[in-house]
Write a structure and sequence with these properties.
Blueprint: H1 11-27, H2 31-44, H3 50-62, H4 69-84, H5 88-106, H6 118-128, H7 134-149, H8 164-178, H9 184-194, H10 202-223, H11 226-229, H12 232-246, H13 255-272
Amino acid sequence: MKMKHNKKRNTAFIFEVLIRELTKSVIQKDTKKKKAIIRLVRENFKSNNLLSKELELYKAILETENADKEMAEKIIFEARMQRRSINNRDLFEEQTEIINQINKVISPDVFSNFVPNYRDLATVSQIFNNRTKTKERVLLERHIIGKMMSLEEDPTGALKPIDNLTYKTFANKFNEKYNAELLPEQKSLLKKYITSFEDDGIELKVFLNEEIPRLKAVLEEALRTKEIKSDDEMLRNAKKVYNILENSHKRDIDKILVQNILKIQNLAKEILR
């Protein structure tokens, strides 16, 4: 009999629904809720917390792509071994604490947020669970390994962790090359993108959750101008750009999305002149 998955006891699911609730609070301009969510995430997913440690194990598996079978199997094996070192009772207490905080400070409705990769999160949770039967675990691992071996549409675009040496080199080159050329908002975006490995991309997501609505507002105003409305090609191109922003929440934050936002920031600056 297949074990029932408890999504509220899935650390990665908790993190994802909070990030999606953060996006909603920004769109709704609910500053109080936005600050509460950011504080809650920062306090509960600190590097020394078990929630943060388990989240990293989920990411090690789910963010791997284009790996060969041997590498994928090794990553899963190592993740399972590290997961065994996490005290289940202590982790349960941390999960209980954040669940209670969500219910009290935000709303129980947070857990109803749609998470696109929910099934994969549930699969990894079952792989980590020692009570999962051997045959079922093997089948689950085979499914995940297949995904880890697949190549996404843009193999160079996915946001990957950056080690300290790479980060310092990137940051130095960035400062030397772009410091006098980029707009302030572009500098902020790039810096948060570069350092996103330090905080699981929280600061980057917070920035985009504020910047994208701003850019949409600029474009909405532009679409109402006589100059654009009277030019079919300009109108068509402006709508394409707007659709990129409108659908940005449906995709992962990767290199391509960041590049698109950088270009739209330039466009917005031109519009506001």
